[in-house]
């Protein structure tokens, strides 16, 4: 296999999950010939391999698939396109000349050269340390994603009486999964006054299985020396501080944490990319290029997505743009800075180019009803209901920014009475 690897590639993609696989397909479609996908797991597919539930592919494939089925379709596309996949390998560093230092379990230490690189490493789960939950450190406290891997890939139940802190999508899905396995799920406790997961998951995973969702509540203390025994749960005030005078105890042997995701930024930090504190990922142009020329980013390493279909769409574009740079077909640079304004929590990309179609992804800070999104004075769109958990995808036709001579645009969302 070592002899099969090339010394120089048009595009090297770091990460073999849904973003990395789609980026490879996009690069091939744009004309790149030598493409390599590097993944640290034993097999490509990323998080999809442990997501055995259905609900994937409704946008991209127009049918409902499980996670492994979705991954398999892209792996077949990659393999049929003659794209190389190097698994069980880790990218240690990327040099200023796009020289990649790679450690492979089978091949040892490798040095590869790329004309363009796509970062598609995904994200990590926040842990107990990130929110500083007081109490002891017993067995039985873990992230929801780890519990999903144990149940779906190892056939091991994490416990019998389960509590879940946070209402992220993985936590909601695991509440249903564990109930189907015969476990008792005592409740889901969310510090915000609204769910941080998709509405469809709240309905299908909690409501349909009579699992209680406690909003504006958090775990104030973890009890148990060797094994988790119980939790002290308390409602929170408007500043999200627990009110211990109204606390109560919940007996359980397992606590799953579904308290958010963080883009995997180890390589981004080493490259000293310009970062966005709102998303936790790199800042990118409308072609998804980072502040490091020739390095692109897509998927959850750029900003956390709700749907794998949106990851795929974004990654296909990133692969296409990376191939254009590798083949010396770079597009004109962006000339408009995009500024998130009223009620906007995050916005990607961070700049736009006039004269071509733009795709923008954004999130709101709080739930909103009957509101209007405006992009400067060039575009507006009405929405009946918006939630922080549900990403907004916005397409700006080329004519919106035609003959625009400013250097920045504000994007705002306001209730109709405030516009």
Q: What percent of residues adopt helix (DSSP H or I)? A: 10-25%
Mean pLDDT across every amino acid position: 95
Whole-angstrom Rg = 22 Å
Could you please say which CATH topology of the largest domain applies here?
FAD/NAD(P)-binding domain
Class based on secondary structure composition and strand pairing: alpha/beta
Q: What would you say this structure looks like, in words?
A:
The chain has 8 helices and 27 strands. It is of the alpha/beta class and 419 residues long. Strand 11, helix 5 (169-180) and strand 12 (184-189) form a beta-alpha-beta unit. The chain has 3 domains: 2-124 and 262-326, FAD/NAD(P)-binding domain (3-Layer(bba) Sandwich), CATH 3.50.50.60; 127-259, FAD/NAD(P)-binding domain (3-Layer(bba) Sandwich); 336-418, Immunoglobulin-like. The model has no long low-confidence stretch (mean pLDDT 95). Helix 1 (18-29) packs parallel to helix 2. It has helices spanning 18-29, 67-80, 128-131, 144-153, 169-180, 199-206, 266-270, 308-326; strands at 8-14, 35-38, 54-56, 65-66, 84-86, 89-94, 99-104, 108-119, 123-125, 141-143, 161-165, 184-189, 213-214, 217-223, 230-235, 248-251, 254-257, 261-263, 295-297, 336-340, 344-348, 351-352, 358-364, 368-375, 379-386, 392-396, 408-415.
């Amino acid at each position: 296999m070592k002899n099969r690897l090339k010394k120089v590639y048009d595009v090297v993609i770091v990460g073999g999950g849904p973003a990395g696989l789609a980026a490879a397909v996009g690069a091939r479609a744009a004309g790149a010939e030598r493409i390599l996908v590097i993944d640290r797991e034993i097999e490509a597919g990323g998080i999809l391999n442990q997501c055995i539930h259905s609900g994937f592919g409704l946008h991209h494939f127009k049918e409902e698939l499980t996670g492994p089925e979705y991954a398999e379709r892209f792996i077949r596309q990659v393999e049929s396109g003659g794209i190389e996949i190097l698994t069980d390998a880790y990218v240690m560093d990327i040099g200023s000349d796009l020289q990649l230092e790679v450690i492979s379990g089978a091949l040892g230490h490798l040095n590869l050269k790329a004309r363009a690189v796509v970062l598609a490493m995904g994200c990590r789960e926040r842990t107990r340390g990130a929110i500083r939950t007081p109490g002891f450190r017993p067995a039985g406290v873990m992230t929801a994603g780890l519990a999903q891997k144990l149940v779906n890939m190892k056939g091991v139940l994490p416990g019998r009486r389960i509590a879940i802190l946070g209402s992220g999508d993985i936590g909601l899905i695991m509440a249903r999964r564990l109930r189907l396995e015969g476990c008792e799920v005592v409740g889901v406790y969310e510090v915000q006054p609204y769910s941080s997961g998709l509405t469809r998951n709240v309905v299908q995973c909690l409501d349909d299985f009579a699992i209680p969702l406690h909003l504006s509540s958090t775990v104030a203390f973890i009890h148990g020396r060797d094994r988790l025994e119980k939790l002290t749960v308390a409602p929170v005030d408007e500043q999200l501080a627990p009110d211990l005078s109204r606390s109560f105890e919940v007996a359980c042997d397992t606590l799953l944490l579904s308290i958010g995701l963080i883009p995997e930024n180890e390589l981004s930090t080493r490259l000293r990319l310009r970062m966005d504190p709102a998303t936790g990922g790199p800042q990118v142009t409308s072609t998804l290029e980072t502040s490091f020329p020739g390095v692109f980013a897509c998927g959850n390493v750029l900003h956390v997505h709700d749907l794998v279909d949106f990851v795929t769409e974004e990654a296909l574009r990133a692969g296409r743009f990376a191939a254009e740079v590798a083949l010396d077909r770079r597009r004109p640079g962006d000339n408009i800075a995009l500024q998130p304004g009223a009620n906007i929590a995050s916005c990607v990309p961070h700049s736009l180019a006039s004269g071509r179609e733009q795709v923008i992804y954004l999130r709101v800070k709080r739930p909103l009803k009957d509101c209007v999104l405006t992009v400067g004075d060039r575009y507006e769109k009405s929405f009946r209901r918006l939630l922080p958990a549900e990403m907004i995808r916005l397409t700006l036709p080329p004519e919106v920014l035609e003959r625009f001579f400013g250097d920045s645009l504000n994007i705002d969302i306001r209730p109709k009475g405030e516009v």
